[in-house]
Write a structure and sequence with these properties.
Blueprint (H helix, E strand, L loop, with lengths): L3 H25 L5 E3 L14 E6 L4 E12 L16 E9 L5 E9 L12 E8 L8 H4 L4 H15 L3 H23 L5 H16 L3 H8 L14 H14 L4 H46 L1
Antiparallel strand pairs: 1-6, 2-3, 3-4, 4-5, 5-6
Helix pairs in contact: 3-4, 4-7, 4-8, 5-6, 6-7, 7-8
């Protein structure tokens, strides 16, 4: 039998782990995402953290929102002792921005896969609503580096993510890879080390003659500069491989949805890194010309 101190320590770890999962669920999970409620957090009041971080549409910044209340849509009253098993159905959770007091409301549906044995099973929570809804605008780094068509694809991918449509999100993000790879490769040329630049240019020219993104990636993947391959990770090959696998290998919406955020973040990383490195290279060359010009004047 486990000693009381060790048992208490184990329960505390479970509680901390669940709280992190529940916070992530509210902050980033798309609509219709489900999680199982931890047995230690079986009351309506305690099943979600008292504070989360979300974008405030009024402040236009990430802010801390504090839980201010909750109510069941089909029950007159809930209190801090109300168990979830006694409050199945939709419950509204009301959070408030710590700076401007703007409210953020989540509608959570509590149910169980086995009503007859509900007391013995963990209830399930599904996010079925959020107001105000998350922005579907691409982040600034993406808006600055994608054309109108690319931005529209990005927004449509976000819409699919927010509505639990993983396969749709995958399709849109893959299209961005198809559309943008030629332009990205051209911009990467500027950040390739001088000694490898001519070889890379030749590979880029060869890639431009290929028709499919997968063929282009295969041609250049071994020649990308190390600065764009953190930990030997090849973003182009990995992103495209994940997208193609998710759609063409029998991936379900649920499976694709689990990978969609990672794919989106990876796309944002490579696009933003290319921008930063090309801007830095251009800035360095410009400053070098200025310094060289001043040096000649001094002579």
């Amino acid at each position: 039998m486990m000693e009381p101190d060790k048992q208490g320590e184990k329960l505390k770890k479970l509680e901390i782990a669940y709280e992190a999962t529940a916070r992530e669920f509210l902050e980033t999970a798309p609509l219709y995402k489900r999680i199982a409620i931890n047995l230690l957090q079986q009351t309506v009041a305690r099943c979600f953290p008292s504070g989360i971080s979300k974008n405030c549409y009024q402040c236009k910044e990430i802010r801390t929102f504090s839980l201010k209340g909750y109510r069941h849509f089909f029950r007159e009253r809930l209190d801090v002792t109300t168990k979830i098993v006694d409050a199945l159905g939709p419950v509204g959770y009301y959070f408030e921005c710590g700076i401007c007091t703007t409210q953020l409301v989540f509608t959570i549906l509590f149910d169980s896969e086995d009503i007859e044995k509900i007391a013995a099973k963990r209830p399930l929570a599904t996010k079925i609503g959020q107001f105000p809804k998350d922005s579907i605008l691409p982040p600034k780094s993406i808006r600055d580096n994608l054309n109108t068509s690319g931005q529209r694809l990005w927004s449509q991918g976000l819409i699919c993510e927010k509505n639990g449509l993983g396969i749709g999100a995958f399709a849109y993000y893959r299209q961005i890879v198809e559309d943008e790879i030629d332009r990205l490769l051209d911009k990467i040329v500027a950040v390739v080390p001088e000694g490898d630049r001519e070889t890379f240019k030749e590979k880029v020219s060869e890639a431009h003659r290929a028709n499919r993104a997968s063929e282009k990636i295969d041609i250049v993947k071994d020649f990308l500069p190390s600065s764009l391959r953190p930990g030997s990770y090849n973003p182009f090959a990995s992103i495209y491989g994940a997208l193609s696998g998710g759609i063409h290998s029998g991936g379900t919406d649920e499976v694709c949805l689990g990978l969609a955020a990672t794919v989106r973040d990876s796309l944002e990383y490579i696009i933003d890194q290319v921008r930063q490195q090309t801007d830095l290279a251009d800035k360095f060359v410009k400053h070098s010309h200025i310094l060289l010009g001043n040096s000649k004047k001094d002579k």
